[in-house]
Each structure stands twice: as C-alpha cells, then as structure tokens.
UniProtKB/TrEMBL annotation:
The gene is gspF. Component of the type II secretion system inner membrane complex required for the energy-dependent secretion of extracellular factors such as proteases and toxins from the periplasm. The keyword Cytoplasm does not apply. This is General secretion pathway protein F. It is a multi-pass membrane protein. The lineage of its organism: Bacteria, Pseudomonadati, Pseudomonadota, Gammaproteobacteria, Cellvibrionales. GO terms for cellular component: plasma membrane; type II protein secretion system complex. It comes from Sediminihaliea albiluteola. InterPro entries: GspF/PilC (IPR003004), T2SS_GspF (IPR011850), T2SS_GspF/T4SS_PilC_CS (IPR001992), T2SS_GspF_dom (IPR018076), T2SS_GspF_sf (IPR042094). Belongs to the GSP F family. One of its GO terms (molecular function) is metal ion binding. GO terms for biological process: protein secretion by the type II secretion system. It is found in: Cell inner membrane.
Length: 407
C-alpha cells in the first residue's frame, strides 16, 4: 500500500487535508466518499529521490522535518521496535501518533516500502534530504546485526544532543543580536530624524563649528540621503556573496581563509571536529567498519578544507596507517583528540575515547562561546554609550561656544 496526500471538501464546503493509505488513487477517492468527503486532489505523498528529480526541486519541495521532530520520531521507533512489534506496525503506530501531515506521510511511505519486503535503510534512501548517510548507515548496520532498536536509540540520543546544542547556541546569541539591532536602529534613527533638527540651527552660523559637530552633521546628511541605498547595497552584497560561494572551488577558498583567521579558526575547527568525532564514535559503536565510518563522518564536516583532510585521513588508514597517526599528519585536528584516539586504539576502546574527545571539545567550545558572549554584551553597551555621548557632545559644544561669546 502507498501513502496518498489528499485535499477534499467536507459537508460544509470546508477544505480539509490529510494522508491515507491505499493501493491506488481510485481507492483513496472511494475512501474519501465513504467518509462523506468530496475529493479535490489526490497524489502520492512525498516520494522524492535524488536520482530522478532536479536539484532545485529537491531543495524546494523537500519534506521540512526539523532535528527535533526527527529525534522524536526516532525515539518513538526505537521504543516500538524494542517492544517486539513488527517493523511495519512500528512505522504505522508512529505515523498515527504524528500530528504533522508531512511526517505522517513520510512514515507511511517508509511503511509501504517495508511492507513490500525492502529494508528500512533501503526505504530511507528514498529520502536523502531527511535521512543522511550517517543515519542510513547506522540503520543498515543495525538491521544486519539484529539490534535495530538500540541503534535507533543511539540515533535519537545523537539528534537530541544536536538539538540541545543548537538551541543553546541560539539562546546565547539572542541577547547580543537584540542589542546589536537596537544599537543600529537607535543610531540610524538619531542620525536621520533627531540630529538634523537639533544641529540645523548651527549649520547657517558664520562661526566655525567644532570638528565633532561638523562630523556629526556630515554623517547625519549621509544617512538621511543614502540610508536606503546603503541597505540595498548591503543586501546586494549578501546575495552576490552567496552566489559566488555556490561554486565549490570558491567556497573552499573561503573556508580556507576562515581557517587562517585567529579566533574564528579555533571555533570552527572545534565545532567541526567535535561533530566528526561524535559521528565516528556512533557509527563504529553501531558496527559500521572503520573505513566506511570515516568516509561517512567526513560528510558531516561543514568546512570543505576539513572535509578534504578527512578524506586524506581515510585514504591513509586504508593504506595501513593507524587512525591517530593519520589525524596527526593531517595537522587540522586538535592535539587532544589525536592523543585520545591513540589511547583508544591502544586500549581497544576507540569508540569510547572518540566520544569523550567530542564531549571535551563541546564543553571547551561552550565555555569559549560563553566567555565571548559575556565580553560582547558590555562592549555593546559601551559602544551605545560612546555613540550617544558623541552625539550629545556634538550638540552641546556649539552651545558652550555661544555662551562664551555672550559673556
């Protein structure tokens, strides 16, 4: 049976949407009429593959499933599978519990493929934009080894940790971003609306104005005359930069430049290598061979230079080198991670040491970001104070000169 998405009119003429399973569109329409619904549109739900659709269609019509939703679905499937239910019934139960039509349609499509005799990993391969290479490799390894439930539980933990980390970073950035937005808005508003009214009385004075006042008047005139052009220029630059970075060669050059910037390089490397170590640990713990795990884990690296280095590491391991030696020769991975990998290879606990390395890097990254945010907040307040003080002084200095002339 296949999942179909439908649109139909109820008895009051209201348009309703949903997902039903059936063997054909005709059967779905019959089911809708039996429910006293008049079908308007019936189509196969969310069947998308990378091989038979253009890239722009995949990007535009991909199922929008967040990390949080994927973690919740994975957790439900892990619980149901470990309870001993057949896999197709697990998928059916998870679909019934889902409140979102996209997720429900996705799960029903997976159930249809599993009911046809395919493996869950094979069914997930039809949705590469939802289930990435790591996810599918772990599911495939779990199915072959007969411990799909524990593997799904590991995947749920991994996705929940990703969600937690992302939320923490977003929460840490909210206050500084609000401060920056308010600071920019206040300065622009002062320059465009307030300052011209206050300093206009000095612009026709025959007496030479103080340098600060003249600079303020020039800045105010510039913002008043060109603020819209400035905003348009910034938007155009942003769009042009995104267009330029679409080409892998240019994006790789940009990533290489980021890795040479002090401070930024350390943060980017810590984020990517922590994700790499955590993914590699989970894959190996799920029974995926080391070489395959290295190549899959390399795909989670967002920096193209680091991703290329991870491919070199995999090649050296394939040639017989130890993992810690290959990582050390790369020169991109943190020394602590290399030492922990060497310890794990010696003791036979590589998966554990990789996870510990990832945890250590994530804690260090969290502390670094916390320190940066703690410094950024007072700096923004000081910046606002300096800007307001400069505007006030620029207005008051000519007034003080007038008072001196009167005396």
């Amino acid at each position: 049976m296949t999942a179909y998405r439908y649109k139909a009119l109820n008895a009051t003429g209201k348009l309703v949407k949903g997902v039903l399973e059936g063997d054909s569109e005709r059967q779905i329409r019959s089911q809708l009429r039996a429910q006293k619904l008049r079908p308007v549109e019936v189509a196969v739900a969310n069947r998308q593959t990378a091989g038979n659709q253009p890239r722009w269609q995949l990007a535009l019509f991909k199922p929008r499933i967040s990390v949080a939703e994927l973690a919740m679905v994975t957790r439900q499937l892990a619980t149901l599978v470990q309870s001993g239910l057949p896999l197709d019934e697990c998928l059916q139960a998870a679909a019934e519990q889902s409140r979102k039509a996209r997720t429900k349609a996705l799960l029903l499509q997976l159930r249809s493929r599993v009911s046809e005799g395919h493996t869950l990993a094979y069914a997930m391969a039809e949705f590469p934009l939802v289930f990435n290479d790591m996810y599918r490799a772990m599911v495939k390894a779990g199915e072959h080894a007969g411990f799909l439930g524990p593997v799904l539980e590991q995947l749920a933990d991994y996705n929940e940790q990703r969600q937690y980390t992302a939320q923490k970073l977003k929460m840490a950035m909210i206050y500084p971003l609000i401060l920056i937005a308010v600071a920019v808005a206040v300065v622009v508003a002062l320059m465009v609306f307030v300052v011209p009214e206050l300093v206009g009385i000095f612009s026709h004075s025959k007496r030479e104005l103080p340098l600060l006042t003249r600079a303020l008047i020039s800045t105010s005139d510039f913002f008043r005359d060109y603020v819209l052009w400035l905003i348009a220029l910034l938007i155009a630059l942003f769009i042009a930069l995104r267009h330029v970075l679409r080409k892998p060669a240019r994006r790789k050059g940009w990533h290489r430049l980021l890795l040479r910037m002090p401070g930024i390089s350390r943060l980017l490397t810590a984020m990517d290598t922590a994700r790499f170590a955590s993914t590699l640990s989970i894959l190996m713990a799920s029974g995926v061979p080391l070489l395959e795990a290295l190549r899959i884990a390399g795909q989670v690296l967002t920096n193209l230079v680091l991703r290329e280095d991870s491919g070199v590491v995999a090649d050296r391991v394939q040639e017989g080198s130890s993992l810690n030696r290959a990582l050390r020769e790369s020169g991109r991975f943190p020394p602590m991670m290399v030492h922990m990998v060497a310890s794990g290879e010696t003791s036979g606990e590589l998966e554990t040491m990789l996870q510990r390395s990832a945890n250590n890097q994530e804690r260090e990254l969290e502390m670094t970001l916390g320190t940066m945010m703690s410094l950024l907040e007072p700096l923004l307040v000081v910046f606002m104070g300096v800007m307001v003080l400069s505007i006030v002084l620029a207005i008051l200095l000519p007034i003080f000169d007038l008072n001196t002339m009167v005396r």
